């Protein structure tokens, strides 16, 4: 499927609702030279680690196919690199979202324990991905 070319793709909060992560990212890499990507991740430094999780397909805000994924941050960076993209990490505390209606929601500056935890919805990472100019 062709959608054309875009100056910049914002991929925020979508990845963890997809089962076919690699296909989705490769499609994005073909459509733009710059991508902002934010997602829930598992706690692993393994560049091949991705967990598939069952989601409620009856809810509009969850996976339409019923399964989502929780890749490791290094998985995202490996796929980007394999497609000639450089991954610029943004894992700083100024991105954290705290105490919305009494809930601690999203954390980007957490420290890896490599325990393969899924971290609920709060364990997140984000990157600016840029096509490497050759």
What composes the largest sheet? 4 strands, mixed
Residues in helices, as a percent range: 10-25%
Secondary-structure element sequence?
EHEEEHEE
**C-alpha Rg (nearest Å):** 15 Å
Question: Pairing-aware structural class of the strands and helices?
Answer: alpha+beta
Tally of distinct domains: 1
Structure description:
The chain has one domain. 16% of the residues lie in helices and 25% in strands. The protein has helices at residues 21-31, 73-82, and strands spanning 9-12, 34-40, 50-54, 67-71, 85-89, 124-131. Strand 1 (9-12), helix 1 and strand 2 (34-40) form a beta-alpha-beta unit. It is globular, with a radius of gyration of 15 Å. The mean pLDDT is 89.
Descriptive keywords:
134 residues; alpha+beta; four-stranded mixed beta sheet; two-stranded antiparallel sheet; 2 helices; 25% strand; globular
Summarize, please.
By secondary structure, the protein is α+β, with helices and mostly antiparallel strands. The chain is built from 2 helices and 6 strands.
Question: How is the secondary structure organized here?
Answer:
Layout: E1 9-12, H1 21-31, E2 34-40, E3 50-54, E4 67-71, H2 73-82, E5 85-89, E6 124-131
Parallel strand pairs: 1-2
Antiparallel strand pairs: 2-6, 3-4, 5-6
């Amino acid at each position: 499927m062709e959608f054309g070319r875009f100056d910049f793709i914002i991929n925020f909060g979508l990845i963890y609702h997809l089962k076919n992560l690699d296909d989705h990212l490769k499609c994005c890499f073909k459509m733009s030279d710059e991508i902002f990507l934010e997602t829930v991740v598992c706690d692993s430094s393994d560049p091949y680690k991705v967990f598939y999780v069952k989601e409620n397909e009856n809810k509009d805000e969850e996976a339409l196919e019923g399964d989502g994924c929780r890749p490791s941050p290094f998985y995202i960076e490996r796929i980007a690199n394999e497609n000639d993209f450089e991954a610029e990490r943004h894992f700083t505390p100024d991105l954290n979202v705290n105490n919305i209606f009494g809930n601690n929601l999203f954390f980007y500056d957490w420290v890896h324990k490599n325990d393969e935890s899924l971290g609920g919805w709060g364990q997140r990472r984000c990157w600016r991905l840029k096509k490497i100019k050759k």
